[in-house]
Amino acid sequence: xxxxxxxxxxxxxxxxxxxxxxxxxxxxxxxxxxxxxxxxxxxxxxxxxxxxxxxxxxxxxxxxxxxxxxxxxxxxxxxxxxxxxxxxxxxxxxxxxxxxxxxxxxxxxxxxxxxxxxxxxxxxxxxxxxxxxxxxxxxxxxxxxxxxxxxxxxxxxxxxxxxxxxxxxxxxxxxxxxxxxxxxxxxxxxxxxxxxxxxxxxxxxxxxxxxxxxxxxxxxxxxxxxxxxxxxxxxxxxxxxxxxxxxxxxxxxxxxxx
Amino acid sequence: xxxxxxxxxxxxxxxxxxxxxxxxxxxxxxxxxxxxxxxxxxxxxxxxxxxxxxxxxxxxxxxxxxxxxxxxxxxxxxxxxxxxxxxxxxxxxxxxxxxxxxxxxxxxxxxxxxxxxxxxxxxxxxxxxxxxxxxxxxxxxxxxxxxxxxxxxxxxxxxxxxxxxxxxxxxxxxxxxxxxxxxxxxxxxxxxxxxxxxxxxxxxxxxxxxxxxxxxxxxxxxxxxxxxxxxxxxxxxxxxxxxxxxxxxxxxxxxxxxxxxxxxxxxxxxxxxxxxxxxxxxxxxxxxxxxxxxxxxxxxxx
Amino acid sequence: xxxxxxxxxxxxxxxxxxxxxxxxxxxxxxxxxxxxxxxxxxxxxxxxxxxxxxxxxxxxxxxxxxxxxxxxxxxxxxxxxxxxxxxxxxxxxxxxxxxxxxxxxxxxxxxxxxxxxxxxxxxxxxxxxxxxxxxxxxxxxxxxxxxxxxxxxxxxxxxxxxxxxxxxxxxxxxxxxxxxxxxxxxxxxxxxxxxxxxxxxxxxxxxxxxxxxxxxxxxxxxxxxxxxxxx
Lengths: 258, 302, 231
Prior knowledge:
Strand content of chain C: 25-35%
Radius of gyration of chain C: 18 Å
Shape of chain C: globular
Shape of chain A: globular
Oligomer: heterotrimer
Strand content of chain A: 25-35%
Distance between the termini of chain C: 39 Å
Number of strands of chain A: 10
Largest sheet of chain C: 5 strands, parallel
Structural class of chain A: alpha/beta
Low-confidence stretches of chain C: none
Largest sheet of chain A: 6 strands, mixed
C-alpha cells in the first residue's frame, strides 16, 4: 500500500468564539477517502471547528492545509479568490438545516444545476441530464425536478442539499449534524444513502454529530471533543467500544446501543 | 430642433455644483476604463424623487456642454411627461438645444429603450438605471456580489436562465436580460427589452448608466463587446411579433401593445415614437393607421 | 509454516472513570503466535479476558502495552500503532472478526451484505453474486430472504447471514467469537465444516467456543488464559 499524503492537515487550530473558546489547539490529519467523525456534546466546539476547516472562518491561531495536486495549500494564506475557488471545487458543506444550503426560491433542479453552472457548465441539456441522474441517486423522483424545495419534506430537502454538494464532485465533504432534525425512519434512509455515496465516490468526509449511532455507521475514525479540546481520537469502533477518557466513557454509556 | 429659452442664471450650469460634476466625471472616467464595472458615486438630491431617473440626470448634468443637443426618451417615447420634463429641465439649467431626432442628438438620455435609428460615432447614450446589480435578486448581500464580480464567479446568474427554460421551455424574460461586457463584467442592461441588447454590442456610441438611488454608475465604451448570456444549446434569441407596426408598418422595430378602447381592441405600435413618425413622414403606412388617428394615437397633432 | 500473527507482552486494563475510577486488570504479559492453517482455541474461566484478547487482536480494544503484528501484503504490521486507514485496509483484506451477532445496516439486503466484503476487495459483481448465493444456500437461508434486509430475521438467521458474509471469501486471518453459539445442530455442523475447510485452505484462526465438542473437533492448539483480579 502506497503511503498517501494527508488531504487535510490541521495544525494547532484555536478559534475563539464570542469571547469563549470554540476549539483550542486542535491538530489532526485527514487522508483521502477517510471518513472522520467529530463527536462531543453541544457547545464543545465541533461546529466552530468545522466552519474553520471549511473555509468560512479563519482560526485565531494555527493552520489548515489542503492538498491539491502535489502541493499543500494553507487555505487561509491563499487569497480569498483562490480559497473560494477551492471551496467550490475541492470540498463542500452539508449544513444541518437544509435551508442554509439550498436556495428555496429556486427549483430542485436549479439548486443542483447551480453547482454545475458555478464550475462553468453552459449546456442546458447536459446539465439537465446530470441533475436528473443526481436526483435519482439521492432517491428523489425525477418528476420533482422543477418543483420548489419548499414543497419538499425535511428529509427530501436534506437529500437535495447533498446532491447539490456532491454534483460538483468534491474530494472532501463537511457535514454538520446531517441527520439532525429528521425523524428516525427518515434518518435511517439518509444514513444509508450517505454511506453508499461516500463509499462509491471514495469521498473524504468530516461529520460533526452528537449521535454515536451515526458515527458508528458512517465514520472510520473518531475525534471526541470536550470544552474545545480533542480528548480522544482513534478508530471509531475502538473509541466506542473501548473508550479511555472519562468523558468518552460517559458519552458511550449514555446511549442504549450504538 | 427647438431653441430653448436661455440658461436660467439662478442655477449653476447643469444644475449641479462644479465640485459634484467633477466627482461624477472622475467616476465616469473610471467606469469607462473598466467596462461594465459598477463605480460608486455620491448621488445628490435632485429636484425629483430618487427612482425617477436621478442617476441618468446626474450623468447628463455632469457631461452636457453648451454645444450639445439633447434628446430625452421614456420607454422610447419623446412625448411622455417624464421625457418632456427632463428636456425642459436641461434646457432651463443649461440653455442647450433639444431635439426629438435621434440622428441630430449628441446626447440622449433614455429610460428603458435604445432608439431604433442606429447610433453613430460621437453620440452618448445615458441610461436611467433602477437596479444596477444583476445578481441582487439571487444574492442580497452587496459585499458578496462585489466579490462575485471581482472574481467573475458568475455561476449563480445562469440559474435565472436555467429556471426559465425549466419552467417555460425557453428564456422568457423579455427585458433586463443580463449582459457580459468586454468578456469580463456581467451588468444589468437596465430594464431595456432584450430586443435592444444586440444594439449595445460594438455600438459606435458611448453608453453610460446611472442609478441615483443605488449610487452606482457604469459604462460601455464605444466598440465594446457585449454578449447576452445564454446556454450553448439555448442561444440568445430576440422576441418577434406576428404583425407589423399598426401605424408605420415597420417589421423590424420594437412594438408596444396598446389597448385602444373599452371593447378591449388592441394594436401593436412602435415604442420609438420618433422613428415611427419619421417613417410615416416618409410615406410608410401601417394596416391600422386610419383607425389609430381616430383614437388620437398617432401622437403629433394633425 | 508462515507466521500470520504475533502478539507480544499484551497488557490490558480498564479504568472505569465513572465508577470511582475502578481499574480492572484483564490481561498481563500475554503472547500469542499464529501460523497459517492453525486454529488456536482460547480457553479460560469467564473474565479471563478471552474476548478482550480477541478484540485487541482486531484493533477494537487498545492494549495498555504490547504489540500485535499481522502479516499484511507480505510484511508484519503492528496493528496497535497503525494509522486508521491502514487498520481498515488490513480489516478489508487480511483480518476479519466473526461474532454471533450481525450488525444490521438499515435497508441493505441480505445478498448485498454477503457480497459487500467481496466487492470491497475488488471482486466483480457477477462473481460476488454467484458466490454469495452459493454460500447462503449452503447455510440453508431460503432464496426468498435474500432480497430482504435482515432486521426482521430471527437471531439464528441473522447469525448465519453473518457467517456467510465472513466465510464466502475468507481473509487470511479470522477471529471467531462464538460463531456457532445458539445454532441448531444441523446448522452448527455446517458452520463447523466451513471453519474446518477454511483453515485447511490456509487461513489462520483464533477462536472462542464454549461447546467443547466443537472446539475439540476444530482446534489445532489450545491456549489457556487464567483469571485475574481487580487491582
